[in-house]
Write a structure and sequence with these properties.
By secondary structure, the chain is of the alpha/beta class. The protein is 40% helix and 21% strand. The protein has four domains: 43-205, 3-Layer(aba) Sandwich (Alpha-D-Glucose-1,6-Bisphosphate, Chain A, domain 3); 227-317, 3-Layer(aba) Sandwich (Alpha-D-Glucose-1,6-Bisphosphate, Chain A, domain 3); 323-414, 3-Layer(aba) Sandwich (Alpha-D-Glucose-1,6-Bisphosphate, Chain A, domain 3), CATH 3.40.120.10; 449-580, Alpha-D-phosphohexomutase, C-terminal domain (TATA-Binding Protein), CATH 3.30.310.50. The chain starts with a helix and ends with a helix.
């Protein structure tokens, strides 16, 4: 075993670490489990997309009370240095294993530093934390969640005073404070119960939930009974605490909850991954959809910031992709605004750079602005902040292809709770017109062309995996794929080098308005494209592939088949190159 890893591991078998932590590492040492020890100690668990995320367990590269404590101590020092302690910190947690314990640890460390917190009294969806930060005028927020990761993971997401996940320079400032803490003995921790008694820790009850529900219904719903038939699954997560009641209050009377997935459970016993992007996670909702003859099926992930949707067609259920649902919601919102004569030169949509370009065609049709930001909903929230301060644009919708949507401006993160209501309202409106969501999607394709997008990923865990991901990015960066599936490369966008290069003219320019990020995008002369980026929260490298074909009523099936074949061929090219490395 490498000497530094060995010494770090041995240190975790001694005071001040608790007995359970010591025993966990002692067993690994006695078993000489070198690979596991290396993975647990080859680095300190670091901030990624707005915070920590990692496997639960003992070790510096794991989620545990000590890594949570270190992160919170760094956050506390940052707040104190910036005179923000009196405003307080909102803390929420989802259904994952140890989420409540990590939330209480966060509150205790803040209290130990003399900083008050507002801790939700039970598991709570991400968007409600964002909403509460704004409602309570808090300095920051923390959500204990690993979103849609497998059950062995948990995480720690940090939010700024406007309810948005932290972005530069705030994230680097907090990371800097964390890095200065050289020992867990530097963590200041107050007694949890005593801190509640002296109001350093304040418990949030139903008032915030009621305020949020009322505003969402007023923003997105019509006060009438709706007859659409719905099946909903919270996939063992926090959505169950609010979504069924929200739908009922909005007039949706035919809502059926998937019984096996109703109870919150951090082990997620009915699914491999608690992710509505995965077809397997939707299988019980599909089963119940057939049993109840539902028009649509819905599912949210454990922290209720992502939503998956299925639509009944010919006695089966077609699952919408994240891009398809983004297009439907965007079109629905803009059509309603157009009918009410509420579109003006300030109306604006925000999407991430790897989200479908069909949104641009829809926005052009309605003469609405559309902005691109880096992957990660925090960048959508950051641009919403700019809109608010500049008053030059009015936000009406934000989305990312990974099932994240926001159609209200008083939350600053993706929101599956309000999006669930919006999807149901949209589906009901089309039902009354004799259409379902797929019918409307085909109408959009006929107008703007068929866009086929797929996201694929490769899991590469541990230190070796991190090295492999780096090798793949370097290979594609240094040797662009000039021809794929008979298509000629037109433009390369490198968000790390901050350059956009036109291959045909040879001219290169600066990518303005984007922070540095390890993302590559390749655009081809026929309109197809693909992007590559390492995940900021998981040990994966992701590929986003898009192909476009024009279509008419006579050849829509052919157009779909042609685009889908093109996407498969591009992915095969990518896989072949990776296999050769």
């Amino acid at each position: 075993m490498k000497e530094n890893i060995s010494s770090k591991a041995i240190a975790w078998t001694k005071s001040p670490y608790d007995n359970e932590t010591r025993k966990e590492i002692e067993i690994l040492l006695s078993d000489n489990n070198l690979k596991e020890l290396e993975d647990r100690f080859y680095r300190n668990l670091s901030f990624g997309t707005g915070g920590l995320r990692g496997k639960i367990g003992a070790g510096s590269n794991r989620m545990n009370r000590y890594t949570v404590g270190l992160a919170t101590q760094g956050l506390a020092v940052y707040l104190l240095k910036n005179n923000l302690a009196d405003m307080g910190v909102v803390i929420a947690y989802d259904s994952r294993n140890y989420s409540k314990e990590f939330a209480e640890e966060t509150a205790s460390v803040l209290a130990g530093n003399g900083i008050k917190s507002y801790l939700f009294d039970k598991l709570t969806p991400v968007p409600l934390c964002s909403f509460a930060i704004r409602s309570l005028s808090a300095a920051a927020g923390v959500v204990i969640t690993a979103s849609h990761n497998p059950p062995e993971y948990n995480g720690y997401k940090v939010y700024s005073s406007d309810g948005c996940q932290i972005v530069p320079p705030q994230d680097s400032d907090i990371i800097s404070e964390i890095s200065k803490i050289d020992s867990i003995e530097s963590i200041k921790r107050a007694d949890f119960s005593h801190s509640i008694d002296n109001k350093h820790i304040n418990i949030i009850g139903d008032d915030i939930r009621k305020e949020y529900k009322q505003r969402v219904i007023e923003s997105l719903s019509k006060p009438e009974e709706k007859k659409i038939n719905i099946v909903y699954s919270p996939i063992h997560g926090s959505g169950i605490t609010i979504i069924p009641e929200l739908l009922s209050n909005a007039g949706f009377m035919n809502v059926h909850i998937v019984n096996e997935q109703e109870k919150p459970d951090g082990n997620f016993p009915t699914v491999r991954y608690p992710n509505p992007e995965e077809k397997e996670a939707m299988s019980l909702a599909i089963r119940d959809g057939k049993a109840f003859n539902a028009d649509i099926i819905l599912a949210t992930d454990p922290d209720a910031d992502r939503i998956g949707v299925g639509v009944k067609q010919n006695e089966e259920y077609v699952l919408l992709s994240g891009n398809q649902l983004a297009v439907l919601l965007c079109d629905y919102i803009l059509a309603n605004l157009y009918e009410q004569n509420k579109i003006d030169g300030k109306t604006a949509i925000i999407k991430t750079i790897i989200t479908t370009e069909l949104l641009r065609a829809v926005c052009d049709f309605y003469s609405v602005k559309i902005y691109d930001v880096l992957t990660g909903f925090k960048w959508i929230g950051a641009l919403m902040r700019d809109f608010e301060h500049s008053h030059n644009d009015n936000f009406v919708f934000g989305c990312e292809e990974s099932y994240g949507y926001l159609a209200i401006d008083y939350v600053r993160d993706k929101d599956a709770v309000s999006s669930t209501l919006l999807v149901c309202e949209m589906a009901e409106k089309y039902r009354l017109k004799g259409l379902n969501l797929l019918d409307r999607l085909n109408q959009i394709y006929l107008k703007h062309g068929y866009y086929c997008e797929q996201m694929r990923y490769i899991v590469l865990e541990g230190a070796d995996g991190a090295g492999k991901i780096k090798t793949i990015m370097e290979n594609f960066r240094n040797d662009p794929p000039y021809q794929v599936d008979g298509k000629d490369l037109e433009t390369v966008k490198d968000y790390h080098k901050q350059t956009e290069t036109n291959i045909i003219t040879g001219k290169s320019s600066t990518l303005n308005g984007f922070p540095v990020s390890d993302v590559l995008q390749y655009h081809y002369t026929d309109g197809s494209s693909f992007a590559i980026r390492p995940s900021g929260t998981e040990p994966k490298i992701k590929f986003y592939i898009s192909a476009v074909t024009k279509t008419t009523e006579n050849d829509i099936s052919y157009s779909k088949e042609s685009a889908e074949n093109s996407v498969c061929n591009i992915m095969q090219f990518i896989q072949n190159r990776i296999d050769s490395l």
